[in-house]
Amino acid sequence: MMIDVLREVKKIEKEIISWRRELHKIPELGLELPNTSKYIQRKLSEMKIEYHTLVKGNAIVGIIKGSKEGKTIALRADMDGLPIKEETGLSFASTNGLMHACGHDAHSAMLLGAAKVLNENKDKLKGNVKLFFQPGEEYPGGALPMIEEGAMEDPKVDAVLGLHNGSISKDVAKGKIGVCYGPMMASMDRILIKIKGKGSHGAYPEQSIDPISTAAEVISALQRIVSREVKAIDPAVLSITRINGGFNQNIIPDVVEIEGTVRAVNPETRNFIAKRIDEITRGVTTAMRADCEVEYEFKYPPLINSEDFTKNFVESAKKVVSTESIYEMKDPVMGGEDMAYFLEKAPGTFFFLSNPNKVDGIAYPHHSSKFDVDENLFYIGSSLFVQAVLDFLK
Description:
Layout: H1 5-11, H2 13-24, H3 34-46, E1 50-54, E2 59-65, E3 68-78, H4 104-120, E4 126-134, H5 143-148, E5 159-166, E6 177-179, E7 183-185, E8 188-196, E9 200-201, H6 211-229, E10 236-245, E11 251-252, E12 255-264, H7 267-287, E13 291-300, E14 303-304, H8 307-317, E15 326-328, H9 339-345, E16 348-354, H10 378-392
Parallel strand pairs: 3-4, 3-5, 5-16, 6-15
Antiparallel strand pairs: 1-2, 2-4, 6-16, 7-14, 8-12, 8-13, 9-11, 10-12
């Protein structure tokens, strides 16, 4: 018997919105989400869905077993917030000094909604559904610890699906979903460089090895990696976001720190940029008679969707939304997402649900103290999860 997915999800739409609002009140950071995790666990228990925890009790893996043996698909939602004081004026705004300023509360609520519908129809499933409620997406990353603790095994995950709501890509109009065949989001790496010179009185620079002027040369040289050494059609970003050194107007310091981020969608380009940052920094500092320490931290890899799975997902999506509501993204976005780790382990896709909501007449961006999402479109996310599972486990 076929399931009318939209009708089933619409039946619990108010619950999904209520779950989001309750989660919105209690944002937590990183890998420490005790209240959030307990809330999700309580809801899964009420639904009589089997689950276990990982990452010291902060990550949750639910399991819905179908009536017959078959493949296993995982649905993923992140749960963490940001260290931002909320200024939305919402009746359910956070009051603990933190904020769900990226929409992860909505992701969790939409996954709970999908879980409820799927669990009530598990007799129609041939295979299993895993529910990944993940901490630490913003920082330091919860997907990899979950994988290392066995989230993708027992039963082994054959495919994985996730979403991000809000307005990640401005090309995806409100009410539409954005899909991408292949690279969708960039890697997210960190660089930290210490330029070590020799301090002196500012009036006698010849007695110094000036780390500030050396840092300026290093920054200028690093900016030419993307503009002169990477193909223009190969998306990459190198941004220096912090420079710190010095004490006073008449003192040349001993050390200057430079910090920044590197984004790439091609793994080879990512490795090339890392190599050139090290080579250029050491070369410039040597020429300036200074020394350096270069720390390149490989963090989230590029998020790359499976073309075959994405094609099938789009066919499933057409059963939920109109063809005109499915926007194929031609270019990746340069933000990072640790959903990428799950997609390295199993084919799948990540999609965008565009549902920005205005506060004071303005649709504020992600990570803003006035960011909000339109709850009236949550049903689309839950429905797409459910429909994709039903089609995958046919």
